[in-house]
Specification:
Layout lengths: L4 H9 L10 E4 L4 E3 L13 E4 L2 H6 L3 E2 L13 H4 L3 H10 L2 H14 L3 H12 L3 H19 L4 H7 L5 H12 L3 H11 L14 E7 L6 H10 L6 E4 L2 E7 L4 E9 L2 E8 L5 H12 L5 H8 L6 H6 L11 H10 L5 H15 L17 H4 L11 H16 L10 H10 L5 H12 L10 H10 L5 H7 L7 H9 L12
Parallel strand pairs: 2-4
Antiparallel strand pairs: 1-2, 1-3, 5-9, 6-7, 7-8, 8-9
Helix pairs in contact: 4-5, 7-9, 7-10, 8-9, 15-18, 15-20, 19-20
């Protein structure tokens, strides 16, 4: 995108939010870079240069715009829509892997050498993994500085910096302000504590998660709430709430749809988990999607066009933990939504780690594969064949034979899932859609999909429907959301 100069100039001049995250604009006369929709007066075209990432701008000597707050724009849709090594690397960097494990750890997860990863990222993003991670640390630091009262030393380490000195130097270089000046500036503008300068709630980080419009929240939040596990998830006061298992601790999050953004309130036992928590929430709600591109392709189909026109911008409800969703997919095999919730709730109560929720509605973390490794199959109240499926899945996850994280190769993960006993195409594609995040995952055997297909006059048999759905590639997971929306089910309604 950043190499198409004419298109980039038009996007900046029109302040087009659809291109936020696709590229960054740097201004030669001011030395500042920002997103395309920055609210300031656009610079002259001859003074604009374009870069594929904030890190590339920083490496070219530009500093960040002071008008745009942290996480003011969604990330690049490419990292969610692709499964190549660069996309997998970016998902891992967003999850803080470089900060925790270094470049060697990043490369090891991807099966490449550090030099190969460096070369691939530089070729596409104009910066290597260390620079990309540094840019992310800077944004995390700014968020903590502006929205919390954490002491600066704690902010530095929570942001992923190895020392207070590197924290101070990076903030100064990227924002042309010291950390103290950033906090004072935020206090004057009312940024701390949200709009109006309200005093922050101790231990709670409040922020806005932006997205590309349009967004239809009905199926997104409706699906999460209708299938929610009691004690782990709930809907309260217009917000979806759940517990989070994180690298350094755990937390709870509240997510509420608002015009132009999703209101997010995070409570973390360790602030070092902030970056991972934000990334998980964005992934859960599919907020980095490009709905214009998706809907444009799907609306070209005459059968899908009326569904897209009626409620454009449907997202794919995903998960904050791929292993958790895989376990829940097995629990939901061939049973009703209510029965699946009951099975999951029993598992959580027996094996999940209890947590304290100040609001009282959330009680447990969903059990990890390691916590379920010693599960006695005889305690499970469902058929013996499904017990074998669950224990086989847990064993593969806990041993590392099956990896379903952001670094997963989608084709390899599908092959390993399919090799496990009791995991058929429906389960594998459900996991691919919601746990792996494959935008082209498709469930032709799903009852809701087949009913919708028949209602629309599409082929209803799995083979014929799969052939017909080839026209929807690479967005068949989104087509599935539009097909499901034709049914009268709680997953399609925003909870009251």
């Amino acid at each position: 995108m950043h190499t198409d100069r004419e298109r980039c100039v038009r996007a900046v001049q029109s302040k087009d939010e659809r291109f936020d995250g696709w590229f960054f604009t740097a201004v030669l006369t001011t030395g500042i870079y920002c997103r395309p929709s920055c609210p300031v007066v656009p610079p002259k075209p001859e003074n604009m240069v374009f870069h594929p990432s904030a890190a590339a701008c920083q490496q070219a000597g530009f500093r960040a715009c002071k008008r745009s707050p942290p996480h003011a724009s969604p990330g690049s849709p490419a990292w969610n829509a692709r499964a190549d090594s660069v996309a997998r690397a970016m998902r891992l960097i967003q999850d803080g892997v470089v900060d925790r494990e270094g470049v060697a750890g990043l490369a090891g997860r991807l099966g490449y050498s550090a030099r190969q990863i460096e070369r691939q990222l530089r070729a596409e993003l104009g910066a290597g993994p260390l620079a990309l991670a540094r840019a992310q640390r800077a944004q995390t630091a700014r968020l903590l500085i502006e929205t919390t009262g954490l002491p600066m030393a704690e902010t530095a380490f929570a942001s992923g910096f190895a020392s207070v000195r590197s924290f101070n130097d990076t903030v100064q270089q990227v924002f042309a302000l010291s950390p103290t000046e950033l906090r004072e500036r935020a206090a004057r503008s009312g940024a701390r504590g949200g709009r109006g300068g309200r005093t922050p709630v101790p231990g709670v980080i409040a922020l806005r998660l932006p997205f590309r419009s349009p967004l239809t929240p009905d199926n997104l939040f409706g699906h999460l709430v209708a299938t929610g596990v009691p004690g782990v998830e709930e809907w309260r006061d217009g917000a979806y709430r759940r517990t989070l298992t994180l690298p350094y601790g755990h937390g709870t999050v509240s997510l509420a749809p608002r015009p132009g953004h999703v209101a997010c309130r995070l409570s973390l036992t360790d602030p070092r988990d902030l970056t991972v928590a934000i990334s998980a929430c964005r992934r859960l709600l599919d907020l980095d999607a490009d709905p214009v591109a998706v809907d444009g392709e799907l609306a070209a189909d005459p059968e899908l066009a009326p569904l897209v026109e009626k409620a454009p911008g449907r997202r794919v409800p995903r998960t904050v933990d791929a292993a958790e969703f895989a376990v829940r997919a097995v629990l939901g095999q061939q049973v009703s939504t209510a029965a699946a919730r009951t099975h999951a709730s029993r598992l959580v109560t027996a094996h999940g780690l209890p947590v304290d929720d100040p609001d009282g509605g959330l009680t447990h973390l969903f059990p990890t594969p390691e916590a379920l490794a010693g599960l006695d199959p005889e305690t499970l109240a469902f058929p013996r064949s499904r017990r074998r499926t669950l224990t086989g899945l847990v064993r593969a996850l806990s041993s590392g034979d099956l990896r379903l994280g952001p670094d997963s190769d989608w084709d390899e993960a599908r092959a390993r899932l399919s090799a496990l006993p009791g995991l058929g195409p429906w389960s594998v594609e459900s996991i691919a859609m919601r746990a792996l995040g494959d935008p082209d995952a498709f469930l032709p055997t799903d009852l809701g999909v087949r009913k919708a297909a028949a209602h629309l006059g599409l082929p209803a048999t799995p083979a014929a429907l799969t052939a017909r759905a080839s026209a929807w590639r690479p967005w068949r997971a989104y087509a599935t959301q539009y097909l499901w929306a034709t049914g009268d089910h709680p997953i399609n309604r925003l909870p009251a």
